[in-house]
Design brief:
- The protein is mainly β and 97 residues long.
- The protein contains no helices and seven strands.
- It has strands at residues 6-7, 35-37, 42-49, 58-61, 67-70, 75-76, 88-95.
- The protein is globular and about 25 Å long.
- The two termini are 23 Å apart.
């Protein structure tokens, strides 16, 4: 299932700086696998860690489910932000071209 792409602007309630959490409600109703474009011009996807993942690590995020694991994917965990199994988090992608 395809997901809409949103531009993040003040007032939309999408916080790509939100800390990892095991509570999905902390992400304002966004579902795992949802992709957004940040005001910084980068792609983000809401993911759920299927294992512990170190900070600044390349990950594979499964479209639709948002399941994330370390691997040669097009997203990564944020610098300084490791995640643990079961946590939801905003994974950072490449720059929008």
């Amino acid at each position: 299932m395809a997901h809409s792409v949103y531009t993040i602007e003040p007032g939309l309630g999408i916080d790509i700086l939100a800390a990892p959490s095991t509570t999905l409600a902390d992400f304002g109703g966004i579902q795992p696998g949802t992709k957004v474009v940040g005001s910084d011009g980068l792609n983000y996807i809401l993911a759920k860690a299927s294992a512990n993942i170190a900070a600044a690590t390349a990950i594979i995020v499964t479209p639709g489910t948002g399941s994330a694991a370390a691997g040669a994917g097009s997203y990564s965990t944020k610098a300084g932000q490791a995640v643990t199994t079961g946590q939801y988090f905003w994974a950072i992608g490449n720059a929008v071209t």
